[in-house]
Design brief:
Protein name: Potassium channel domain-containing protein
Keywords: Membrane, Transmembrane, Transmembrane helix
Distance between the termini: 62 Å
Pfam families: Ion_trans_2
Helix content: over 70%
Strand content: under 5%
Structural class: mainly alpha
Radius of gyration: 19 Å
Oligomer: single chain
CATH topology: Helix Hairpins
Largest sheet: none
CATH architecture: Orthogonal Bundle
């Protein structure tokens, strides 16, 4: 059990690093538009927000694949496709139950679920802050009035 906890903790830290890198990269790319909100039309801000969403989607896919690679490396799942499917379902905390890990490794999947909740929450917080900055109530009303 200790091996599984240590392994899962290592994967968790790896995915946090991946996600932190994505947050910093996306913030760096969007820093100009974030500081010049008055200069951008609402439709442009929406487009840049979509860019952020796609960036985070890519980060989440990479994080899911990291977990899947570990499941394959320890021999828990038969194919990489099966490992990615199981990891995605677990990371998103859907948990269909059609594929499960052995009792030796099932604790790792519980840690992956917690990991997914935390990283989705981090993504949501970032996107909420961007939306709050870009779509402030007074600006939305000004944009509607111009239409």
């Amino acid at each position: 059990m200790l091996l599984q906890i240590i392994s899962a903790a290592g994967v968790l830290l790896t995915t946090i690093f991946i996600h932190g890198t994505a947050v910093m990269l996306l913030f760096h790319i969007g820093q100009g538009p974030l500081t010049g909100t008055q200069k951008l039309a609402a439709s442009v801000r929406l487009g840049v927000t979509c860019f952020f969403v796609i960036g985070f989607l890519i980060a989440h896919i990479i994080e899911i694949m990291v977990w899947a690679a570990v499941y394959r490396l320890v021999g828990e799942l038969q194919s990489f496709e099966e490992a990615v499917y199981f990891s995605a379902i677990t990371f998103a905390t859907i948990g269909y139950g059609d594929i499960t890990l052995s009792p030796d490794w099932r604790l790792a999947s519980a840690i992956e679920g917690v990991n997914g909740i935390l990283l989705f929450g981090w993504t949501t917080a970032f996107l909420f802050k961007v939306s709050e900055i870009w779509f402030a109530r007074s600006e939305v009303h000004r944009d509607i009035a111009r239409s």
